[in-house]
Amino acid sequence: MKYKSHLITGFCVAAVAFCGTVNAAEKKSPAPKAAAMEKKEAAEPMAKKARAVPFRGKASAIDKKEKTFSIVGKTNTRVFKVMDKTTITKMGSPATFDGLTEDEDVTGSYLKQEDGSLEVKSLKIGGKTEAEKAAASASKTKRDAKKAAAAPAADAEATPAPKKK
Question: d(Cα 52, Cα 69) in Å, to the nearest integer?
């Protein structure tokens, strides 16, 4: 008799525990999904913050009045609009848009707007300055030295030793 009472009590406890777990799961699941969707929708406008995209080429079709210029690519031509907040430099010193001429090298970054226009964030007119050329040359020299130091060790392991007769 004692065994039967323990068995019945165990089933009752298991049934209560099982029902409590199911009810708790039913109550909790809709609320987190709705809250997660609201958080995701609220975060989406912030996630689409524009990032600056680099560009490089030769300026053409310069319109001083509209403050626009084009860069002709292999497959398409991009038209860039210079804004009042655009940072413009020429040979390392501050400059204005009026200093830009046809077929001059330009580099910089732009922000793509929702309407498809390309607004220039920074514009460098002309080629690299002497300091930039020196820095590029120094980094290339370091890179070449590292490759040369690593090359003999790789060759020694790759080629087998000659056989002695």
Answer: 18
What's the N-to-C CA distance of the chain in angstroms?
A: 96
Both structure tokens of 12: 């009752």
Contact of 86 with 124, CB cutoff 8 Å: no
What is the rounded CA–CA span in Å between residue 54 and residue 69?
Answer: 15
Single pTM value for the model = 0.52
Q: Residue 121 contacts by C-beta under 8 Å, 6 or more apart in sequence?
A: 52, 86, 87, 108, 109, 110, 111
Treating both helix axes as pointing N-terminal to C-terminal, what angle do 2-28 and 30-47 enclose, rounded to 10 degrees? 30
SS3 69: strand
Output the CA angle 9-13-17, nearest 5 degrees: 170
Give tens-digit pLDDT for 34-44: 555 555 555 55
Nearest residue to 100 via CA among 76, 81, 119: 81
Q: Would you give the DSSP letter of residue 108?
A: E
Residue 62, burial from CB neighbour count under 10 angstroms (0-12, 13-18, 19+): middle
